[in-house]
Amino acid sequence: MKENSYRTDGIQRGLLSEDLLKFRWLDEIALSPDGNRVAYTVRHPHGESNGYITHVYVRELGAAATERLTSGVVSTASLAWSHDSLRLAYAVSVGEHHAVRVWSQVDNSTQEYPITGEPLTGLDWSPDGKRLVGVRWTPLRHPEDRSAAPGIPAPTIKVIRRLRYKQDGSGWVHNRFLQIWTLDLHTGELSQLTYSECDYSTPKWSHAGDRLAFVGTTREQNIPLGYGQVFIIDYPGGAPQPLLPDWQGSAISPVWGEGDRSIAFAGHNLPPPVNRRNFWQPYLADVEARTARKLGEDIDEEVGNYAVADQRKGLANITLKWAAGDSYIYFLLTEKGATNLYRIQTSGQYERIVSGASVTFEYSPAAGGKVAYGQANPLNPGELFLWINGETQQLSDFNPWLRDHRLSAPEEYWYSGIDGTQVHAWLVKPVDFVPTRRYPTIVYVHCSMFSWDFNHEFHVYANAGFVVAYFNQRGTTAGYGQAWTHASEGDQGGKDYEEIMLGVDDLVARPYVDATRLGVTGGSCGGFMTNWIIGHTDRFAAAVTQRSITNQISFFGTSDIGPEGTEGETGTNAWKDLEASWRQSPIAYAANIHTPLLILHADQDYRCALDQAEQLFAVLRWMGKTVEMVIFEGENHGLTRGGRPGNRIEHQRRILGWFQKYLGTHAARIEAEGA
Predict the structure, then answer these.
(1) 59, β-bridge pairs
(2) By residue range, what is the domain housing residue 278?
(3) Which end of the chain is more exposed for a tag (fewer CB within 10 A), N or C?
């Protein structure tokens, strides 16, 4: 089936790349403290500006009445209810103009506070309702910096003193840091609270209003502060002090407990250098004693949503939330391709309250057993739900147009990996699947995590006539226990590659999979694996590598996570063991690549820098291989999730076109081939 074809029997087609423009995505959720209203944001593409609009809505839960608070081409974020549930604050941007707006449900009025310069986000209300706290990018002048002398042209330079001098999605941050500010709602005055070369985030007022807890992260990744520590500051006039002076690992997402005697957070206490392979789990700190203990001793999964798909602009959502007056702390937990909602008491007793073949990606609790949450599944990119003491109610219908299209639900299965270990896998069949036919098949690979989330891209390929298969082999970021995630450390392209190929063996045993027409693709670490696979086997007739890693030696110094990520993944670095670093670099095997390769990359990708793509392209082009490179201008590592709509559509079309060219989309009769 061609991409623009329709069925002739009156049933709608499947999804096309340009259907991206129809989606509506639920983003943030904020349940009022009294549990009577839920605020949420809905984001959707805006074709005219080649961008996105995000509007704020408030729903009265008792009356089931919904009101939209914003209009026009706006971007909104950072929903925050006042403690008395009467006012809602949020950050809003219209072009380059930023403000904080406060909506009052008493008289349905909105007051706007213009923010000059960088926006104020991450909002939280003071208990007395007089001010908001948040964070904003703030220039910091180093003592050694000097102004240009009179009569001498000012130099155009960047002075680098910290490792994280650029960050994917934020650009160059060498001379600016995220600092904490307060906004006085009477005067509109902004006041800066922190002034150090550290990035601060998620500020939370204590219940008494005399202290703030927040996270500080330095730009140096090989020290305990490099992955986040909780700080406390007396308000007003205090200086930041670490909550846990002896903590060696990571501590993030602080939230105050009743009486301000405790703070819950997500973290681990493993020594630096810390990296993404160490799981964040729920902890409770004693504020006076400055000590912490883990909640739920037997929890061996990762706090947060690690479902990788193309519907959410941000990943992880590593948060703990503790409503005032409630005995439960809430959090997400990634488990076997699903993200489930949990709650836990300070005693450590916990329960899973929302689960299924789905991904819960956002949530907001109120005291008394009430939680609003967003949940997606493979056939729906996400709806708003309300959970009240075990009873669930759906509150939204954001994408009714999907019901007029044919979607192929993924089929879950497990196959035998190395030593018989069971590996979680899925496959999506073409929307017009006929069991007696054999189909070209796309194997999607990663070293992060596939999930039960909705994936527009997979539906596009299924509509075009492809089988799509994907596996969570060893090394998967989360969902299968800490040991499974650590299993590929220091062995990139080793047993994880072997396990993927065992999955391919299992896949092609199905009569409807055409083993002569296999394609492989993946992004980021999945791009690494795509490069690795085609350097070690000729089983695939075509490949597309996206935002990939090719050279572990240069990755160390060009990625915003390179210093800790390289050693965390490969177990070494170039000056310790050059041979091992090179051995785990896909470009080392370029001479063995015979598979036609399409390289897709973004020019502002600071996670996997553009030079990674350029190096592989240059080598393959020099060797006379079949290779093409497409560079997306003005985009970062999150192109496929939050890039400009036009570029996201083109990205899908490039992949689809490459596989159509080298694999074809026709389905061969099995009988005709003697199978």
Answers:
(1) 38, 66
(2) 24-144+157-323
(3) C
